[in-house]
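Contributing new records

If you add data, match the layout below exactly. Sequence lines come first and carry their own label; structure lines follow with theirs. Keep one chain per record. Anything else will be rejected by the validation script.
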Amino acid sequence: QTNKKNTTRKGYIRFKGKIDSFGDCVGVELDEKITDATDGKFNDKEYFKCSQGKGTFIKIAKIIQKLPKPPSKKEEDTNDKSKEESKDDESFPAAPETNDKSEEDQLKKPKKKK
């Protein structure tokens, strides 16, 4: 009886396609370094860029689960600001054009165009 080691890893797909000597596969930038990983190269050809030890290529059939994409740093910053602005569930963030105006200017009625 052989013990199969756990090779489940998480990472981001950086390449999807066919490699001559490997077939249809994906290139994955792993969250954590492993000893037998690359920097996005396969047989000295670069398919994507990442830190040495974080790139690997696997057959598409070996993918267990595709996780939802995490928010980008910009989206996280926007969400943090929205949370600060909305103290309760009923409030909404102010429109960007109102943030630059004083409260008095916001309350003034718009001038009618002739």
